[in-house]
Write a structure and sequence with these properties.
The chain is of the alpha/beta class. Helix content is 35%, strand content 20%. The protein has 2 domains: 2-150, Alpha/beta knot (3-Layer(aba) Sandwich); 168-221, tRNA(m1g37)methyltransferase, domain 2 (Trp Operon Repressor, Chain A), CATH 1.10.1270.20. The structure holds adenine (ADE).
């Protein structure tokens, strides 16, 4: 899989993807992640990429010329062109799973007040938001989306089970509480059932706890 990120801040997008599992996935050839400087496609001598809003209003918008040139240069016949924007469809695990099946993503990062609507109308296949809040920089959102997708690619996680058994993968339930050794710490004991070796009982307890946690923290997920 190839993920191209188009941004005014390539270092911001790449920094979180340069360590640990993301680093190993790239070294193993599971994914190729490239960040591109939008300014390289600016057309005027000042390399201007933004301008004021038509009709007035505060802030600046990314201009169409550099974005058209960059997207047309970077996309191919199998590319899904995605715009990172708080106005987009909300990114969830199911969306990550769908996107992980695509051969090539081009993540276009907004900045300032966003991008000229003509870019969206003509070039963008999907507008994606990572949540109901506004970031200063779409490159942060692109790194989040890339991480969530890459960890789903076969071979990216050491233990394949960990992406199958986690939250949101089965039903719409959060994960049950988890414990490691020691069995007692500062008088706080690991629940006995988890030390019992009884796999049926453990599975029952985990489901019960997952339901309780979902009710408490994310009642919106329950029917
Ligand atoms: N750019 C700014 N805020 C964003 C968000 N919540 N999701 C995606 N891109 C963004």
């Amino acid at each position: 899989m190839i993920i191209d990120i188009l941004t005014l801040f390539p270092e911001v997008a790449l920094a979180p993807l340069s360590e640990s599992i993301m680093k190993r996935a790239q070294a193993a050839g599971i994914v190729q992640i490239r960040a591109h400087q939008l300014r390289d496609w600016a057309v005027d001598k000042h390399q201007k990429t933004d301008d004021t809003l038509c009709g007035g209003g505060p802030g600046m918008l990314l201009k169409p010329e550099p974005l058209f040139a960059a997207i047309e240069a970077l996309r191919g016949p199998d590319t899904l062109v995605v715009l990172m924007t708080p106005q987009g469809k909300v990114f969830r695990q199911a969306v990550a799973r769908e996107l992980s099946l695509r051969p090539h993503l081009l993540l276009v990062c907004g900045h300032y007040e966003g991008v000229d609507q003509r870019v969206i109308d003509e070039l963008i296949d999907l507008e994606l938001s990572i949540g109901d809040y506004v970031l200063t920089n779409g490159a942060i959102a692109a790194a989040v989306v890339t991480d969530a997708i890459v960890r789903l690619l076969p071979g990216a996680l050491g233990d394949e089970r960990s992406s199958v058994e986690e939250s949101f993968q089965q039903e719409n339930l959060l994960e049950a509480p988890a414990y490691t050794k020691p069995a007692e710490f500062r008088g706080l004991r690991v629940p006995e059932v988890l030390l019992s070796g009884n796999h049926r009982k453990i599975a029952e307890w985990q489901r019960e706890q997952a339901l309780l946690r979902t009710k408490k923290n994310r009642p919106d997920l329950l029917p």
